[in-house]
Design brief:
Layout: E1 7-13, E2 16-24, E3 65-70, E4 73-77, H1 79-85, E5 92-100, E6 109-117, H2 123-136, E7 138-146, E8 149-158, E9 161-167, H3 176-180, H4 191-202, H5 215-229, H6 247-254, H7 276-279, H8 283-290
Biased composition (Low complexity): 272-284
Biased composition (Basic residues): 285-300
Function: With LigD forms a non-homologous end joining (NHEJ) DNA repair enzyme, which repairs dsDNA breaks with reduced fidelity. Binds linear dsDNA with 5'- and 3'- overhangs but not closed circular dsDNA nor ssDNA. Recruits and stimulates the ligase activity of LigD.
């Protein structure tokens, strides 16, 4: 496997233990990365910590973490003090129970990782756990210390391996009731609801992540390439936005119906498969190489 493991340890289910390796499933390394540069010299800038009172740079040996207890007043914590109270990890992800797949609200999903056997000896034990999850259509809840922090993980069978997703703690997920408490109750029925259903039915499709285009990253890649080649790049035109005067008329137009047609009429056109993915073919490879094409900086 070409990917580099970010963590190695053991997956434990009862008395079944197998060595596993954890790999980051989602990465932003292929995005166009911009650096802070001195406009006059072209040199990249270094980040330094400055004391706001003395205006002097603070040496690394004098940098310490602290918790603010009052305005500009902190309790400092040495690395040794933090290490002494943080639970020590034994490099084991211990399965504590099982739940039906889909039971966990995705608000609690933090970061996904690929989990696979770390050696040949562990392949059989790993396969037993994976197939057990798959056949019973359940996910396992496990606990362990990852990157010096105790974490809860949702473990699911995925293709030939396992996906382990770290979970947010309950206190980290903001209250849904508080977020939506001031939204008034609105009753929608009759033609409006029929039109909404019709729009959904005519545009129903399947999830195709390869058709999603990162327009921001593509625009940056095009801009960098244009600067390297010494040409100007035209700014994209603002999309036309029509004024919505009447909600019912907007629903009818979205459904492909004229303003006077009812919701039961058939839509004139149906939404086909997105061609966005095709138009962006080769963009990913462009992002990887665009910075490498820059000519060497000239002296003077």
């Amino acid at each position: 496997m070409s990917l580099r493991a970010t963590w190695k340890g053991y997956l434990k289910l009862g008395e079944v233990v197998c060595a596993v390796a954890l790999y980051t499933a989602v990465s932003t390394s292929e995005r166009v990365r911009l650096h802070m540069v001195n406009r006059r010299t072209g040199h990249s800038l270094n980040r330094r910590f400055i004391d706001p009172e003395t205006r002097k740079e603070v040496e690394r040996a004098d940098q310490v973490k602290g918790y603010e207890i009052a305005s500009d007043e902190y309790v400092t914590l040495d690395p040794e003090e933090i290490a002494a109270v943080v639970p020590a990890g034994d490099k084991t992800l211990s399965v504590e129970g099982f739940i039906p797949c889909g039971e966990v609200d995705d608000l609690y999903f933090d970061r996904p990782y690929y989990l696979r056997p770390a050696d040949e000896v562990s392949r059989t034990g790993f396969a037993v756990i994976r197939e057990g999850l798959r056949r019973k259509q359940v996910a396992a809840l496990a606990r362990g210390v990852l990157f010096r922090r105790p974490r809860s993980l949702l473990i699911r069978a995925y293709a030939q391996g396992i996906v382990a997703t770290t979970l947010n703690y309950d206190y980290e997920v903001r209250s849904v009731a508080e977020a939506f408490e001031d939204i008034p109750e609105v009753t929608i029925e009759g033609e409006m609801l029929d039109l909404a259903r019709h729009i959904i039915d005519t545009r129903m499709g399947i999830f195709q992540p390869e058709t999603f285009v990162d327009r921001y990253d593509d625009a940056l890649a095009d801009l960098v390439r244009a600067k390297i080649e010494g040409r100007k790049i035209a700014a994209p035109k603002e999309p036309a936005r029509g004024k919505v005067v009447d909600l019912m008329d907007a629903l009818r137009r979205s459904a492909g119906l004229s303003g006077k047609e009812g919701a039961k009429g058939e839509a004139a056109t149906r939404v086909g498969k997105s061609s966005a993915g095709k138009s962006s073919a080769g963009k990913s490879s462009t992002r990887k190489t665009v910075a490498r094409k820059a000519p060497a900086r000239r002296a003077g």
